[in-house]
Amino acid sequence: MTYRVYVTPDAFAEIKNMPGNMRQRIKRAVDDLSNNPFPPGSKQLEWQELEFKLCRLQIEKWRVIYLVNETELTVDVLGVRKRPPYDYGDLDALLSDLE
After folding, report:
1. Distance (Å, rounded) from C-alpha 80 to C-alpha 17?
2. Does residue 20 come out as left (phi exceeding 0), alpha (psi in the -120 to 50 range) or beta?
3. C-alpha torsion 17→23→27→33, nearest 10
4. Which pTM was predicted?
5. Residue 14 burial (CB < 10 Å; 0-12/13-18/19+)?
6. What is the pLDDT of residues 15-56, one digit of tens each?
7. What is d(CA 41, CA 25) in angstroms, rounded to the nearest whole number?
8. Domains, the chain, with CATH or none
9. What is the pLDDT of residues 70-93, one digit of tens each?
10. Three-state secondary structure along 55-94?
11. Containing H/E element for 42?
12. What are the residues facing 7 on neighbouring strands?
């Protein structure tokens, strides 16, 4: 099964402004989500009542936040954040941008 991967404009801008080496790793990881939306290093996040799976992919200190819709076979990349200091406090804002 192949998933369609969509990157929000904000997430695209975040990836574009990353350091070169990490930018390439994040781009490859996002591209690979089309074949496997739950790769090693990913984790499903529990967040309110969602009809889709909210996940994060850890790549060193960076987190790729994305939604998986298994019905439509889509992956929506919502953001890329560095941890620390990122604590998932903006998930409501990221999710509201999809509506």
Report:
1. 11
2. alpha
3. -100
4. 0.86
5. buried
6. 999 988 999 999 999 999 999 999 998 999 887 667 789 999
7. 13
8. 4-96 (3.30.2310.20)
9. 999 999 999 998 877 666 676 777
10. EEEEECCEEEEEEEECCCCEEEEEEEEECCCCCCCCHHHH
11. strand 42-44
12. 77
CA dihedral 14, 17, 19, 23 (to 10 degrees): 50
Return the exposure string of 52-86: e unless at least 16 CB atoms fall within 10 Å of the residue's CB, then b: bbbbbbeeeebbbbbbbeeeeebbbbbbbbeeeeb
Q: Provide the token pair at 77.
A: 């990349």
> Phi then psi for 4, rounded to 5 degrees?
-85, 130
Length of the chain: 99
